[in-house]
Design goal:
heterodimer; A: alpha/beta; Rossmann fold; Alpha-Beta Plaits; 6-stranded mixed beta sheet; 12 helices; 14 strands; 37% helix; B: mainly alpha; 80% helix
């Protein structure tokens, strides 16, 4: 058991969640979130992010382990947990027949907000998420981004100290996504609301989160600030691409050749690309090109990049976070 | 306390949703009245059959009231299926809302609408010349019985909705099974015109018990024996339906 601090708003130890069909969706994870933190839970589809959120928000029963949220045990005192949390689920959920204001009033009443303060708080929230002009219109007429903002506001109407967001920006256009990011940052910074956010977008986690845990196959495989995680990779990345059709033998031969160059490390290959880490990648580029040319290997493109969280994920798991999509792209027959 | 307040908040939600979907609301309110008008006009000749009491319109009135209890209670199942599939139920479940209020708010809405629809049928019948031999107290008893039967049906639809999570299954059940029960009962047609097998079915059909009791408020005066059987049958059905609905609800919200 990791040390328990009183300012840990979430404490999870050895949490296991097994579904009735036997799937171990969460397989023994432990982590802490401190009060006021903007915490990111990063992982690909099916990694166990949603299951973790559902368990911490009292919607799913844990199989074993320990979890406390806002000072209450999740499995023993779910009512106490619900008092302190707001939840925005993956699908945007609003009542399309009710107006924006009615949606917020309903959730205020269900959260037992006293009627004296409710009206004023609803007006204030409508201003914060910029829906005051359309507050009297049925939510069914709102755009996707507006509904998400209403969904977010309805999770805040009881002033929770902790806000859970499960992939909140999935399906939003870039503009709505940026707007949502701003609201979340404001809520975190100005109201001191702790935010627990799951995402499969690296740049989202990188931009918003002060600390990140990376989950894959139900296990935590990395934890730290974005900076720590990236610097642990050691330097920059050189990436070589070959013709799009993919040629694993050629890539493997190239990897073998590059292995002889001093200063290159952590070689990893994909069907039509290859990457390697180096402390001073730019200086190594000429020798990479000439060494490959000697063996008659000619990459179609070559790039140098400083590490991103995507590289962190690649390094920790051996694949890209959105590998499902990348794989699909490379195995699809090329249309003539 | 939270049960009452939360039930009130949810009643308000469901009621607002009903009013904002006027097509469904008007269809449900007009259909029973239209049935009463059409059937009593087209089948007026049934008035001379034994057991009809001289007026098929008066005979049919309680049967159409029972129809209201079945039609509006189907909405209970539809609503819970929609909330389950849209994620709204889960969104409510992460709040501090009293769990019982989620069911109770729904049931109150349906019973309220059953009573409104029943009142419309009674008013239409009176306008068409039916007089209730038991007067206003009899009409109130008829409405209460309709509410109780509607509540029971709402629980049945809730249980099916929670179990299947399918709007298609519910509407198939609503328009199929429910209408078979209505039409193969003494609520719609007198026993004397039914073939033997239908008479047997009708004799076991809860809808027959309820409409026979209700009919005594229109024709012939209070038949307390019929009311006792109607409440016993509906009560037994209610116990099973509520047990099933609660079991499915607990399974859903664990």
């Amino acid at each position: 058991m990791t040390a328990y601090h009183t300012d840990d708003i979430i404490a999870v130890d050895d949490l296991v969640v097994v579904y009735p069909d036997g799937t171990r969706a969460v397989d023994g994870i432990s982590f802490r979130v401190r009060a006021g933190e903007f915490f990111g839970f990063l992982g690909p589809n099916g990694a166990g992010k949603s299951t973790t959120i559902k368990t911490l928000t009292t919607l799913l029963r844990m199989t074993s382990g320990y979890a406390s949220v806002a000072g209450a045990m999740v499995d023993r005192d779910p009512d106490e947990v619900r008092r302190s949390i707001g939840v925005v689920s993956q699908d945007t959920v609003v009542d399309v027949d009710l107006t924006g204001r009615e949606n917020l009033l309903l959730f205020g009443r269900l959260q037992h907000v006293s009627s004296e303060v409710l009206e004023e708080r609803v007006d204030q929230l409508l201003r914060v998420v910029e829906l005051e002009d359309v507050a009297g219109k049925p939510a069914g007429r709102y755009s996707g981004g507006m509904r998400k903002r209403l969904d977010l506001a309805s999770a805040l109407v009881h002033e929770p100290s902790l806000l859970f967001l499960d992939e909140p920006t999935t399906g939003l256009d870039p503009q709505s996504r940026a707007a949502l990011w701003e609201y979340l940052e404001t809520i975190n910074r100005e109201k001191g609301v702790t935010i627990f956010l799951t995402t499969q977008y690296m740049e989202e986690a990188d931009r918003l989160c002060k600390r990140i845990a990376i989950i894959d196959h139900g296990r935590l495989i990395g934890e730290g600030t974005p900076g720590e995680l990236k610097s642990a990779l050691g330097g920059e990345t050189i990436e070589l691409s070959f013709e799009s059709s993919g040629n694993p033998e050629l890539v493997a031969r190239a990897a073998k050749v590059l292995g002889t160059i001093a200063g290159l490390s952590q070689l990893s290959t994909a069907t039509s690309s290859l990457s390697a880490s180096a402390a001073n990648a730019e200086r190594l580029l000429p020798s990479v090109i000439t060494t490959l040319a000697k063996e008659d290997i000619h990459p179609s493109a070559l790039s140098v990049s400083t590490p991103t969280l995507d590289d962190v994920f690649l390094r920790l798991t051996g694949r890209r976070i959105r590998s499902d999509e990348l794989d699909r792209r490379t195995t699809e027959p090329f249309l003539q | 306390m939270s049960l009452m307040l939360d039930t009130g908040a949810l009643f308000r939600r469901y009621f607002t949703k009903l009013v904002r979907n006027p097509t469904l609301l008007v269809t449900n309110l007009v259909t029973p009245v239209a049935f009463l008008a059409l059937f009593s006009q087209m089948l007026g000749k049934l008035s001379v059959f034994p057991g009809v009491g001289g007026s098929f319109l008066a005979y049919l009135t309680p049967g159409i009231v029972v129809m209201c209890s079945v039609m509006f209670s189907a909405q209970a199942g539809m609503s819970i299926v929609n909330d389950l599939n849209s994620g709204f139920l889960q969104k409510m479940l992460v709040t501090q809302v009293n769990r019982g209020a989620i069911l109770l708010g729904r049931l109150c809405t349906d019973v309220f609408m059953v009573v409104i629809a029943s009142i419309l049928v009674v008013l239409a019948a009176i306008a068409m010349g039916v007089s209730f031999v038991t007067g206003v107290p009899g009409i109130l008893l008829l409405l209460a019985t309709s509410a109780f039967f509607g509540l029971t049906w709402a629980a049945i639809f809730l249980a099916i909705g929670l179990k299947t999570r399918s709007a298609e299954t519910l509407s198939a059940f609503g328009s199929g099974v429910a209408f078979i029960l209505l039409f193969l009962s003494s609520g719609m047609f007198p026993k004397s015109i039914m073939p033997g097998w239908a008479q047997t079915f009708s004799a076991w059909n809860p809808v027959s018990y309820v409409s026979n009791a209700m009919r005594s408020t229109v024709l012939g005066g209070y038949d307390w024996g019929a009311f006792a059987s109607a409440y016993a049958v509906t009560g037994a059905l209610a116990v099973v339906a509520f047990a099933a609905a609660l079991y499915q609800f607990r399974k859903t919200v664990h």
